[in-house]
Amino acid sequence: MSAENAPTAGEYIVHHLTHLQNKPMAGVIDFSVYNLDSIFWGLLLGCIGSFALWMAARKATAGVPGRFQAAVEILIEMVDNQAKGIVHNAQSRKLVSPLALTVFVWIFLMNSMDFLPVDLFHGIFEVTGLNHSIHYFRVVPTADLSSTLGLSTSVLLICLFYNIKIKGIGGWFHELTTAPFGSHPVLWPINFGFQLIEFVAKTVSHGMRLFGNMYAGELIFMLIALMGSTAALSLSGILLPIGHIIAGSIWAIFHIMIVALQAFIFMMLTLVYIGQAHDAH
User: Of the listed 35, 152, 213, 229, which one is catalytic?
Assistant: First the structure.
């Protein structure tokens, strides 16, 4: 593509940050609009993660484990130890521990999509001719706020389930109306309001934390990619390709930690919130 037809830096970033949707968004908030790319990658990576764990369980042996089995066993032991330290109900951990493991693996895989070259799929679409029908396509589901808030809302629903299961409807209602300020009837509306704010704040911050980190990481990768494209269009930019390679390598190494850390943090917060649902005030 010639320099005259090349998009500006702003157009390039906006194009790569726009989702493939089922229809043009009619307004700021339109619940009939879906990000098809996030749904596709989220489901695909969820199936891949589940299949990998199933294969590890299917091929598990009592003898000397292979590398893959050993890695999965280490991961399972790590998650189980964290669950035991936070959720003290052994019966609940039968569901909570596999849930936490699934959350970690799924989010780790979705975060890892950020390591793919920024223009990989757009280049594939251009070669195959699909670029005429697919103009936008994002591959990092966790850089989509609707995905991360959907995950955190699912955690909220699980917490509500355990609040009712462990405490009963009456016990949970008593907690909603008497904590944190006391059981005087005058304080019931205030306590209930604070409890609602706490549930909303935890859910929003849970999803926003993951989204913010992954969105920022995706944006930085694009800015680094722009360094390379600028170098390609400039004969005098000899040092720019070198800076592009160095910056990209450093950020990719650093981003490996971010990808794993954000999956771990989301999993830990999931365990903490479920553990709080088991505690009585």
Answer: 213
Q: What is the DSSP letter of 281?
A: -
C-alpha to C-alpha distance for 179 and 276, rounded to whole angstroms = 13
Which residue in 50, 205, 234, 249 is the catalytic one?
A: 205
Whether pLDDT at 193 is above 70: yes
Domain residue ranges in the chain:
9-278
Average pLDDT of the chain to the nearest whole number? 86
pTM of the full structure? 0.88
Cα separation, 207 vs 187, in Å, equals 31
Q: Which of 209, 229, 236, 249 is labelled catalytic? A: 209
Dihedral angle, C-alpha 212, 213, 219, 220, nearest 10 °: 150
Question: Which tokens in the block code for residue 102?
Answer: 């699934």
Our answer to whether residue 236 is catalytic in this structure is: no
**The pair of three-digit structure tokens given for residue 38, joined into one six-digit string:** 């996030």
213 is known as an active-site residue: yes
209 catalytic residue (yes or no): yes
Give the tens place of pLDDT for each residue, 200-256: 999 999 999 999 999 998 888 788 777 765 555 554 555 556 666 676 677 778 888
